[in-house]
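tool_call: predict_structure(chain=1)
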Amino acid sequence: MARGKKGTTKVGMPWWKQSTEEILTNQNLRSCFPKGKWFEGLGLYITLKAVVTAQYDSEKKDCTTFEIRHTYLLGLSEHSITQESVEIYLQSMLKKKVIEDIEIDDEKSVIRLDKIKDELDNWSARQESAKAKSEEVVNKANDEIATPFDDVPKESNSEVTTEKLHPTGHNNNIDSNTTNTTTSTGTVTATGTVTKRLDTNSNTSSQFEWKVFDSDSSVIKLRHTRLGDEFWIIDSDLIDDQSKSLEEKYKTQFSRNFKAKNTSKAKKNANFIAG
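tool_result:
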């Protein structure tokens, strides 16, 4: 997926990798077109590759399937090819398994061209890898957030303990009709215990434990100094922003990834309910 202004994303890849073998020596592709029509057929095939690349969206299951109107396709060819020839060439490419599927009606064609997945350029493939790495880090962070208090490491400066409440006349915040009641020291549960809050006001701030191990104009790669996990900063506005510290860039990218993941889950749940 290509990157837009200020780190936003837009559908489509900027280019794809084209092998010389396919153009110069691939007889299967050449056989899709009549003798003497190789340049015409090749022009059609390359145009189809450009259209699917421009619409490619890895977040969609059918990202290699695209729709193109006949008027638009013929306009791109400057009407140097007829609609009849286009349909004959498409059927021939389908038979030779150059394309995977086609549906043609009076106004448009729907075409599936899976080969483009193997021809994504290095920049786009790197973006896909960075996205997968970021999602992996977000998932791991979610798991850590969901860890019960009992799993807090012993070396932690903050203690999490439970103690029995003794009925006194001073626990005015406790409502016997509620299951959980928040007090100044923690949360009162229905069993009569209080779980103390973690001390988040420690005078010693935690040290930022991510270090840069590689970077270029499109990505800053971080590695955790203790755990060895990787996290990639890929939004261009963060990469180019000289006013932000590395920690600020990390936190902003992490927050964006987290929000994007939750938004995606919400959409899937909504679609499931609607279905």
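agent: The chain is about 40% helix and 15% strand. Proceeding to next step.
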